[in-house]
Every structure is written in structure tokens, then in C-alpha cells.
Here is the input.
Amino acid sequence: MDSLEATRNRLNQVHISLRKLSDQINYNIRFTGKTRLPTYGQFQSQFHVLITQLHSITSILENNQDILDHTNAYPLPLFPTSQHEGLATTLLRKKPLPEVEKWIDEAIEHSKSLNINSQADDEFSQWCSAKIQEIKEDFQFYGFLSTEELEYLETEEGKKEASAKKEAERQREDVEMGVTTGKKALHPNQVLKFMCQGKIE
Amino acid sequence: MVHQLSLVSTIPHSSYVQTISTLQALTGLTSPQPVSTYTLICKPINKFKPKFVPGKVNQIEQYFMKCITTWDDLDSFDLATPYLSDRVSTSILFNSDSAANTKKIWTLQISDIPIAGKNQTCSAQNIFESTLVHTHTASRKDAGDEKDSGDLDKDSFLQFLEDLGYNSINQFWIKGVRFFHGDIVIEIFKVFVRDDANKDSPSDSIPLKLLDESNGFQIKAFINVPKSTDIDLITQGSAELAKLQDFLKNLIQLEIPDRIFMDSRVQN
Here is the structure.
């Protein structure tokens, strides 16, 4: 959003200076009666200003390339703006419609009547987080299992489950081994050498 | 001539699906372009050794040449399934009746050794290519002689290469997919070579085996720049490749290939 706004400002500046230049030229032609152009110096300074402005636009565009690349401008140039002007203005309207504004006002009124104390809410949430910190200090964390889970692992069933897991792991490794046939992958360099010279070492 | 900026990598077979999905998400290409090419590597038949004159740099070199054409595999297979046994075979391209009188588009390619230099972000290499259309003709020898029956003349393309002074020394097949990300082309492929140990395949097909027996995929990310003198495009291209390298660094370790391995000059 910032980058778009910055670009817009710069473009506006260019527009203004271009208009100034054209005014200068037109003024001289229209009112002096003679077709005399502004002096070389005036042109020079105007162009200099223009070039600086264009330069700053390009630098802004370049700096924000990532964002602008992924930004879509609506309506698209293909949109028949002149035929569906009403639709376009409705869609692009930034301010809420009058009826929507009414709803918002109503909601605000309604919330006032409910008499909610937001400060009390904040205080409560603060108290909660402080309490959690306090409780956390009473515990000690080692590993990822709770005491009950560790005890379960000691029982017969738990042992069975653990060995089943190990078995599954081993099977997965076997499959992997079958796919790779236990060999290390060829380095890209080796493959490139083969592709260039037809032999491999 | 193109100037190619490239980075390479390899992934184990098990991370193929993950890589493909990631690249699909990154590039927005839900169905990547399939790639299947057949390449003949050729070497000059006669050695050319200019007289060595002291103080004069010898600029005359002989190069390996690659002849590339497309490979239409008869029994197409899914790359996502690991290639475990001798499941893959291809039809014989040369010297078969079906290959006779067919037009094929061949690309002849000679590549320079990549540019040397310190602090490179990617490998940069000049590649010279010429594409031609060749009508294959392979005529059967007179079947009068019992011994020679079934023996075939040399395929016209191989004959053409021989006339040119080149002899094919090896061949490989590539099967993979291709993604496009901006100007970057990302290719993921497996390289197959002829499996001579496998004798029990039907006579009209060539059994293939993987060059890389660990079943890994090769990855190549490259940008082609039309001219090697276009510094702006080259800097921009290398920056884009570096960006991609950084973006994918947790998935694929894209790295600069060693230029010595990409030297396609004939060592006399």
C-alpha cells in the first residue's frame, strides 16, 4: 500500500511538471503573439526536474518490485468502464454505503446499551497469563512425554506398541534401501561429465 | 548460440513427490511439461593435431558433439514409482523397419567449457546448437547370403555423422519433467543408459537401466541468455537464480557445477 501510494505521488509530480512545461510553451505562443519558445535554460531546468522525478519513480518501482509484481489492479483495463460506470463506482467505493453506515451506528449504540466493561476484560486476560506463568514454574519439562505416558511405556502393552513402531520404521528403511539399492547418489558433476564426454569415472 | 546460466542438484527418489508438489505451488504449473530426450554423444573420428608453435596459443580444439532428439517411449511409465527392475525399454531407433523413412528432428549441440572465475553465483556456459530434420533411411542388405540375412545397413543418420567426421561413442536417454518459473527453467530428470547385461528382452527394443543406480533425480535450473555479451541480462539472470537457490534451500541444495566436469573438449 505504501509503495503504491509513493508511486502515485511521484507520478502526480511528473504530471504537474509536465503540465507546467506545456503551459509555459502555450502561454508564450498564445499571449505574446509571437511564436517564441521559452529559453534554452528554462527547458534545461524543466527537463532536469523531469528526469530526477522519473529516476525516483524507477527506483521506487525497483525497490518494491516483489510487492508490485503480485499486486493486481482492479478494474482491469478490459473492464468496460464507460458502459458499467455505476457498477465500477459501487465496487470501488471506499466509504460504506448509507445503509451500512446506519448498521454500524446501530451496532455501536447497541454495544453501549449492553454496558460491557472492556477494561475489566483486559485485566482478566492479564491475570490469566500471569497465573499461567506462575503455574508453569511448578512443573519441570524433560522430553515430550508426560509421566503417565512414560509409565504406560513400561507396561506390557506399551512395550508392544514401541516395538511395533520400531518394526514399522525398519520396514520403511528396507523399502528405501530397495529403492536406492544402498548406493550413494551420483553427484551432479559425475552425471554432467557423462553427459558431456560419454564416460563416467 | 545461447549463453546458459545454470545450477544443479540431486534429490533422492523418496523426496520426488514433495519436490514436485513444492514446485507446482511455486510455479503455478499443475501439470509440468514432460521431457523425454535421446542423446547420442559423438567424438571426432580423426585426431587433428596442429603443429605446436612456441609462443602461439593453440586455439584449435576438437569438441564432443551431442545429437539430441525426442524419445517416444512405447511403454510409458510413471516417474513417481521407483524404477526397481528391468521394466523400462525403448524401441530401437536405428536400423529397424519402423524407423525407416521417418522424419526426425535432431539438434546438434557443441558446448564450451563454462566460464572460469571466482565468486560466481552460477555456472555460465556458451552453447552452440543447430537443428536439422533428417529422414531416416535404413535399407536391408540383400538377403541372399544366409549369414547376413537380417543384418542391416548403417542408418542414414549415423552415416551422416560419419561423413561429418564424427563417431557416436555413447548414448543416453532422459526422462523427466520441466517447470517454468519466470525466466528460469527447472528440469527434474533421470538418466538412462543401455543395459547390456539384460539379454532376455524382445529383440525390437533396447533394455534400459538407470545411470544413477541409487534411483536419484537430477535437477537442473537454468536461464538461457541470447548473447554472452548482454551483461545486464546475465546479471539479472544470475540474481534470479540466486533468489531461487535461496528460496529452495531447505528443499534442494542447488549448487554450481564444477566446470572441469563440463569440459566437452577432446583431450588429445
